[in-house]
Amino acid sequence: MLKKAVFLADPDNKNISRVFDETVMGRLNSQVQLFPEWIHPGNANSYINELADVEIAFSTWGLPLFTVDELKAYLPNLKALFYAAGTVQRFARDYIARDCIVVSTWAANAVPVAEYTVAQIVLANKGFYQTAPLYKSSYKASKELSKVFPGNYEAKIGILGAGMIGRLVIEMLRPYELQVDVFDPFLPDAAAAELGVRKTDLHDIFANCDVISNHLANLPTTVGILNKQHFNLMKPHSTFINTGRGAQLVEADLIHALREDSTRTALLDVTHPEPVAEDSPFIHLENVILTPHIAGSIGNEVARMGHYAAAECERYCAGLPLKYGVTLKMLETMA
Length: 335
Known about the structure:
The chain is α/β, with parallel strands linked by helices.
């Protein structure tokens, strides 16, 4: 007999059908018996009898928040939540407190972020962001400016955070023969050696790297961790990339550093607040490139997360070890 399962989502959640597309739903329907209604705190009590023996739940962005008491009342036999999206920080502890396995497909969401980051690093090392706009006013000046950039052989890249995304970026950079320096207090020396990177501190990275990319975990301890003592060290013609979290920067300090040396460049896919305020200097600074949080899964990429969730469910139903289960210990350091 198939295990009973349910989707946890508000009725207007448009992400469910995108992440769990027809192909993913075909996989799920062969594995579990899905309840026909999406469940949220507003309707759970109406289906309290039907939900009593539900063992598995699926969700994605927009997961409605249940309290521990509500989970106990409405989903007393829930054993596994497969979350087809990224961070689980806002709800995972409540589910784990109910002895419910929490699975995040952050590994699937890491793929497009890493691809995006590597593309930006390659372009930054070629001076793309500085020379392209200059070309329209002066080809000669644009060509001359291109000579100051290192290209993609033996350039120095700084990676902040060697979690799922940071490690994937490092792996994808291997063919480029770059020197990769990493700041991550939680990265063991043996793991750094296996990755082929040099562990160092923030000051060293900001002072010496041609491109610096932020992938630090989104934790209270990382809020404002990047500030003037780092940004003021950036080399001329260096580039800072942020696909992590905007709150990890003291943005006023980054703005000051960019104004102080206009050859420095910032590529910001995330800001705090998001979007930036209309009067933010980021809007007007020519050495700032803003993108609307596109590094993560967009378009067809979101279905990859649904497939990861389906694959994890297959392993769960077969009694096999899960690849992407989340523990309380992991929540201390993961994004």
